Automatic annotation (TrEMBL):
InterPro entries: Elong-fact-P_C, NA-bd_OB-fold, Rib_uL2_dom2, Transl_elong_fac_P/YeiP, Transl_elong_KOW-like, Transl_elong_p-like_YeiP, Transl_elong_P/YeiP_cen, Transl_elong_P/YeiP_CS. This is Elongation factor P-like protein. Residues 68-123 form the Translation elongation factor P/YeiP central domain. Belongs to the elongation factor P family. Keywords: Elongation factor, Protein biosynthesis. GO terms for molecular function: translation elongation factor activity. Residues 131-186 form the Elongation factor P C-terminal domain.
Amino acid sequence: MKAYDVKKGNVVEHNNGVYQVRDIERSSPQGRGGNVKYRFTMYSVPGGTKLDVSMGAEDELKEVELSRRQATFSYKDGDAFVFLDDEDYTPYTLDADVIGDGAGYIVDDLAGCYVQIIDDQPVALQLPQNVAIEVMETPPELKGGTATKRPKPAKLSTGIEIMVPEYIGTGEKVLVNTTTGEFAGRAD
């Protein structure tokens, strides 16, 4: 696969190691004929050793064959998160460092997750696109401020903070995009 096809969560082979892509930075030079560069932040699988790699858009990366099992978050065991396979209820335990920033999106009974497995070992987690999380604390709406769209900070039940529109209040559930970490609407 070409560097421009790589997405967050993909597992690729690089220098005889297996890595999961956790972050992608794209830089396009302003001049004519400038080549787009991609900077990948990858973590070794298993192990979690960080590696930063820069590549051109046409550079090749080999995607690693892995199995993906749909799972639901069951409970937290110390720092580890335990997911149950939706079909056969196999428990998959993933450490907090493997999940990384995604831990802030894991709520009770979170369904639609995919546990990525290489050689019968759970190595990574793919979260659903949007997750409903309760707002624990946010400043009250300013009266008369409805004409402008001013975002305000909101602390969510999982501990993360995002910016939400002014009309969102404490106790409401909001959808959060797990890729961008941004507000994606009200949850039902």
